[in-house]
Amino acid sequence: MRRTALLVSAALLTSLLPVAVARAAADDPPPVPVDRFEGEVPFASPPAGGIFTWGGDSDDPPALQLSTRGDAPEGDKVLAGTYDISGYGGFTHDFAFAEPAHDWSARKGVRFWWEGQNNGKKVAFELKDGGANGEAAELWTTSFTDDFTGWKQIELPFTDFAYRTDYQPVGGIDQVLGLTETWGYAVTLPVGAPGRFAMDGVELYGRADQSLRASVSTDSVVHPVREGGTAKIKVTVATTGSAPLGDPVTVAYETSGGTATPGKDYTPASGTLTFPAGTASGATRTVQVPTLKDKGAESAETIPLKLTVTGAKPPAETPQIVIDAHGLPYLNSKLPVQRRVADLLSRMSLAEKAGQMTQAERGAVGGGADVTAYDLGSLLSGGGSTPTPNTPEAWAKMIDSFQLRSRATRFQIPLIYGVDAVHGHNNLVGATVMPHNIGLGATRNPQLVQRTGAVTAAEVRATGVPWDFAPCLCVTRDERWGRSYESFGEDPALVESMETIIQGLQGARNGNDLDRDDKVLATAKHFVGDGGTAYGSSTTGTYTIDQGVTTVTRQQLEAVHLAPFEEAVQRGVGTVMPSYSSLDVVGDGLGPVKMHARADMIDGVLKQKLGFDGFVISDWNGIDQIPGDYASDVRTSVNAGVDMIMAPYAYKDFHSALMAEVRAGRVSEQRIDDAVSRILTQKFRLGLFEKPYADTSGASKIGSAGHRAVAREAAAASQVLLKNAGDVLPLRKSQKVYVAGSNADDIGNQSGGWTVTWQGSSGAITPGTTILEAMRKNSTALTYSKDASAPLSGYDVGVVVVGETPYAEGVGDVGNGHDLALSAADQAAVDKVCAAMKCAVLIVSGRPQIVGDRLGDIDALVASWLPGTEGDGVADVLYGKRPFTGRLPVTWPRSQAQLPINVGDPAYDPQFPYGWGLTTLTKVPKGGQSTLKALGAAASRAERAGADGTGRALVAEARLIVQQRAAGRMTAAVAAPFADADHLLLTGRYGEAVAKLTQAYRAA
Hints:
alpha/beta; 1004 residues; 37 strands; Immunoglobulin-like; Jelly Rolls; six-stranded antiparallel beta sheet; globular; 24 helices
């Protein structure tokens, strides 16, 4: 998210022609040109000086050009552009990092010509101030409204710029707009509709005086204090350039207004603070306001501290002292949660209840004033929505600042902050990134998967986040789906077995561990059927399958898609998220209905039939996809059983619409009370009322060796050895190894989507070990050539690491710019290396890739999935430090035309069946069919005795025998019973599993 504010040096441009039009006061100095757009500054990216674009995805950056215009306000050319932005987008002018920043502190502001389109949209303009360069400075922002037609000169005084609390490249240097080291400007364009713009003649204007150069701030906007305590508010004066005050600054203060009663709740305070001329920038004075103790129980009460500033810019907000709520039953941690919920609910207004049901994106609430104004119950970080620097400390500080705002509400109900930590705390740079779920499904190791969940929970909670939008319990039935890697596999029995991750995240099933500093609230998603959408059924943008329609019989729904959620409810999962997709149950007469609107499933099945007692959180703007107007969307979703609505940027609209629906009688107060009770219950269980702020005691373990060891083990266990002709694997340390391929040395590619940003990206995006780096540790002679262009002679074996680049959700759908074929470059690398030497091909991807006819030329083939940051785990199995034990969580097709193909299909002839996975470092039992017969009898006895461990071990022995015989001779007659056996194994039918394996053995 390169929302940087960067600028060209004024010193560099003082030789340029002056702007023709200047509306300067008589005593103002001449304007200083900044950007004339005559071609003097190129289109370029940091660290070079120039203009560059940016955006939330590939479609969001605007198209720019320097256009010759007869009506140009200055010179012959203007900067013109077009845009169509869905997320965010704009452009920046960056001053080269190799040159010094420039000093604007003597000027009143910046101005430029803008060609208005009269669209009524706001355009944000940002400055970058201080720091080492344009990528390490503070962002300061203001905006203007395009409510005019034709050219207009926009003047932006520096006093109008506010410090950006939602995004900072370094999280703030001193939070003072010094202007002595200005690095650039950026323009953020409107979203939601196509548009065009033109801009010309950026320049500095006017002369700064002290009221523009000095500002007054307080240490916090909200100052909670226990009843009877004394609030202490620090008042600070700062100047641009950090120069001493040239003239005195006075701050008159007075306690005035609020809900607290002077003389009864606090001792009124008033007076004047003086900062004399010559006072150093950063000087602080303290105002003290004593509160008074009485014997009554009360809700929180506010005392605004009115500040009147002379000689400097006043604070943006009036600071408030808050006397904490006290003595009320809901605050008593010794009472049962149910009683605390009932007490608090009985005191709340409709507006407060609606606030608890509202979740906003942290980037939408700015400094957080709306947390208080709308009694918001929750905030989230969407994929890539992070503080900067993206460090554990910055996360905790950011979330605490939002939580502080909730202390100014009447009942001080804490926020619950959520993130998509779907394979580790993946938004956080430096976190331990686990294999994606598809790889975890390949491990077939519930205990290991639980440990990955525990590591994730510990790292997430240590940054102040108590809620994780994971795990995804979708059952992927068509790998053309861009979310298929978020699934544990195609078999509901496999998905259920992996739900130990819920205990890793939450701890005990009864929720008693949720208040620990290493546990988080989990979310089972996406209810229900998002893995079964039909190809071509999506109506979302250019998506082909994601958010489409799942058409099933009632029996198929319950057996395939609903079963994992039943297991999650039994495991005590705290929240459930509905799917964007539509569900069409054959024979129910409803046709396709968006899941956010299906009361029969959310309220009827999930809550009533399955007994789910947590709360239901919508997906990102999920209710907007329900047919009808917004009021109807709100009414339908809430009545369907959705308890909290994720309305990232429309939270105000949702809040008001919900209250209107209740007042009109279209949503009952009983439904509202049920929703809020569920939300409050989880907040009490999490211990947020007692400890609302971040507990960072575990922060030192984020990305630690111990945590990475778990991820390394998971990465190793996720590797599936599909072919191993001539025992090419494991490699020996002494072998001369030739490594090639696009994914050998790319931490971003091996981590996949949902890593640091929503879509993920290639490159060194977070600390970790690439597969190549890990292999170097194990080899005495290794050569790397990404495109296999280096000489190929003289090597014992080649390893070609190929596969996909990152994507997420419908962006990755096949047919939406993606397919399952290897790229031309990857195909060429495989062909070159495998023609020259024995070769092993590793496929790093979120789903099977079509190998086709190349399989005969490949000696060893490994499905590496998306192993995360710990490439050492991949090297561990390549070099025999650990055995290959992974098994396919999904069927590997021969061609894309076979999709969808799944275990149990009547026509089943894949390249590799579900459950396939060769094993190294393990002896295969001898005796063939006679041994299988004995294993089958023993497995049946173990099944009857409930000896699950023994039963699984016996089936594993049988699998080894069959795989040894069937390797290289895969037919439909072998594949179908082999895949069926793996499903039977997961459902505890050990005798039947061996019988199926025996059938496969005979067919081979």
